[in-house]
Give the backbone structure.
Amino acid sequence: MTFNPNARIDPSRTRRRRGGAAAGGVTLAGGLGLVALLLLSNWLGVDLTGLAGAFDGASRSSVSQSEESLDACRTGADANADIDCRIAGAADSLDVYWSGFFANQGLEYRTVRGLYLFSGATGTACGTGQTGMGPFYCPGDESIYMDTAFFDALAAQARTEIGPLAQMYVVAHEWGHHIQNIGGIMQGLDLRDTGPGSDTVRLELQADCFAGAWIAAAATTTDDAGVPLLIEPTQAELEDALAAARIVGDDFIQREMGGGYVNPEAWTHGSSESRMRWLTTGTEQGAGACATFDVPASEL
């Protein structure tokens, strides 16, 4: 899915953080020790349980960083050419979509406080986030954090290029966690339980479904002048997004990291098949069909 080159994007929600790389930090591509520790709880996930010690306990102030705006990202052409601008454009489209959805439901919406791009490590209200954790949403500051190097690691896992829509699916998934947070869906859940039918898996599959709902409607989101931000996705682009969902399935990750061993009782995000199916549910039926908490475990 590409941007309309003439569309004007608002990059104000997205910022790039510089500095703050942790000494001895581990990257997603090369740090298999850290990644193996985090795969089941944090890969493309939401930080709600303290990340089982994955954060180093540092406060926001312990990581010295500077922030810069993405003011150069102004058009759809910029988003098509540059990964930072593409994420900023996706955030703009997601904000337009979800604000409209909430308004149609008579609900109050608030956007994410920030979408932060970083390298190495970054301070958050949930502790210190690191590259090896993959993209994540922090409810404490209602912000999304991601190192774009994640897409290179994802491509290495998929053994193929990760296209623009697959990249934006990752952003949309994390935005889905924000929707769950402000919509009260996260309240009262047991997010320490694991397994195919756990609340944690249901939360992740719903975020996939929410991402699919945005993908289906993204071509209808417009800039302030009414110009569509994005062009209708092709079938090949949809398949690319599904491929990304497949390789962040718990069973796929366990096979890759554990020599073929799969333990469903340790799942926190759902199987590849489930993640692809709920992403498809969102694209075909919209956000109203994302009722992952209303179906038996056998139907997840």
User: Anything to note?
Assistant: The beta strands are 14-18, 45-46, 66-69, 114-117, 121-124, 127-130, 136-138, 143-146. The longest strand covers residues 14-18.
